[in-house]
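Can't paste images in this forum, so I'm doing it all in text. The chain is below; anyone willing to post the predicted structure tokens underneath?
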Amino acid sequence: MRVNHSKFDELRIQVVEEALERGNVALTARNHGLSPYSLYKWMKQYRDEVEPTMSKKKNLDKLSNPQTTEDWKDKYEQATKLIGEKELEIAVLRDLVKKKHPHIQWKWPENGS
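Text version of the structure:
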């Protein structure tokens, strides 16, 4: 879950992402005119927030253009998982709507559209 940040915090997060991707904090700090010490503090502060999004990006990059059978299987499994999550989310939202508006008779489509 992402916290609302100011523009300055968003800039810090972008610099931290760049440093983690590049793997060279001193070079990233120099490129942005920062002290490496400041960048290390930012990395410590925002790492828990940045790393999950970066791992998702890496997984998406890997699966965006599958080359091997294993890549296709991984992409299929990921798609199946996402569909299951979305179906569960729809079911929960429908239950909430029914509870909030019990006086309305809802007719949900059978095919989920």
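Residues 74 and 109 are 31 Å apart (CA to CA). The longest helix spans residues 69-100.
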